[in-house]
Automatic annotation (TrEMBL):
Protein's UniProt name: Aspartyl/glutamyl-tRNA(Asn/Gln) amidotransferase subunit C
Lineage: Bacteria, Bacillati, Bacillota, Bacilli, Bacillales
Family per record: Belongs to the GatC family.
Annotated organism of origin: Paenibacillus thailandensis
Keyword annotations of the record: ATP-binding, Ligase, Nucleotide-binding, Protein biosynthesis
General function of this protein: Allows the formation of correctly charged Asn-tRNA(Asn) or Gln-tRNA(Gln) through the transamidation of misacylated Asp-tRNA(Asn) or Glu-tRNA(Gln) in organisms which lack either or both of asparaginyl-tRNA or glutaminyl-tRNA synthetases. The reaction takes place in the presence of glutamine and ATP through an activated phospho-Asp-tRNA(Asn) or phospho-Glu-tRNA(Gln).
HAMAP family: GatC (MF_00122)
Reactions that this protein is recorded to catalyse: L-aspartyl-tRNA(Asn) + L-glutamine + ATP + H2O = L-asparaginyl-tRNA(Asn) + L-glutamate + ADP + phosphate + 2 H(+); L-glutamyl-tRNA(Gln) + L-glutamine + ATP + H2O = L-glutaminyl-tRNA(Gln) + L-glutamate + ADP + phosphate + H(+)
Amino acid sequence: MGISMQDVEHVAKLARLELTDEEKETFNGQLNAILKYAEKLNELDTDGVEPTSHVLPLMNVMREDDARPSLPIEKVLLNAPDEEDGQFKVPAVLE
């Protein structure tokens, strides 16, 4: 099964691409080469090969979520440009 010139023109039309005759020939050759390679892959014996979603085993690499004491509010508010009632005070962003 190969890609015909009409297939290339159809895909170009769907993608709204204006291709020259030379570009159509180039894409026709490239697409046929891709299909030929895919057909070669279909020849592989994959019986007994377990399907995978990723080539490497994935695992959670995040640290454990351990509860730790927070900084005292007085020390945190030292970095605040302005504070009010133990909270950061910022300029209003809504009118």
